[in-house]
Amino acid sequence: MSDEDGGEADWSSKRRQIAYQESRAALNAQQAALTQIDNKAIENVRITAILLGVFVSAVKISGFSFEPITGIIGGVALAISLGAGIFTYNETDPYLGLNQDYIDELIADEFTRSETWEKDLPELLAGFVDDNADDIEFNGAALTVAQTCLFVGVVLVALSAVI
C-alpha cells in the first residue's frame, strides 16, 4: 500500500481495499472516542479530588459541622467517583493497529494466517474494531458511574451542610 488510503493500485480487490479503509477509519475514530472518555475521566478525578480537599479542609479549619449521615453518604459517593474515574482512565487499552509479529510476517513474506494478507488484514482490523467498541461501551459506562457519583456526592454534601 503506497498511501494512507490503501493505494488503489496495490489492492487486487476494490472491495478489500474499501474494507481496509473503512476499518482503519473506524479504528481512528474509536481511538479519538477513547481519548475523549479518558480526558473526561481524568477531569472528573481532578474535580472530585479538589472537592474532597475543600470539604475536608472546611471541616478541619472552621469546625463547621455537616449532618453526619448525609455527609458520610456524600463523601462515599465522592470517593466512588474518584475510584471510578481512575479506573476508567487506567482501563483503556485500545487496539491501535497491527502488532510486531504480524508486521514481521508481512515483511518476510511468510504470511500463514489465511490465503493472502490482503484478505486477512481487513478481517483482523474488523476484529480490532469490535474489541474497541466493547471497550468504548464499558469505559462509557464506568465514566457515567464516576460522573453520577460526583453529582450525587456534591448534592449530598451540600445538603448535609444546610440541614
Automatic annotation (TrEMBL):
Q: Which superkingdom is the protein from? A: Archaea
Q: Which residues cross the membrane?
A: 45-62, 69-89, 141-162
Transmembrane among keywords: yes
Q: Which UniProt keywords apply?
A: Membrane, Transmembrane, Transmembrane helix
Q: How is this protein named in the record?
A: Uncharacterized protein
Q: Which organism is it from?
A: Halococcus morrhuae DSM 1307
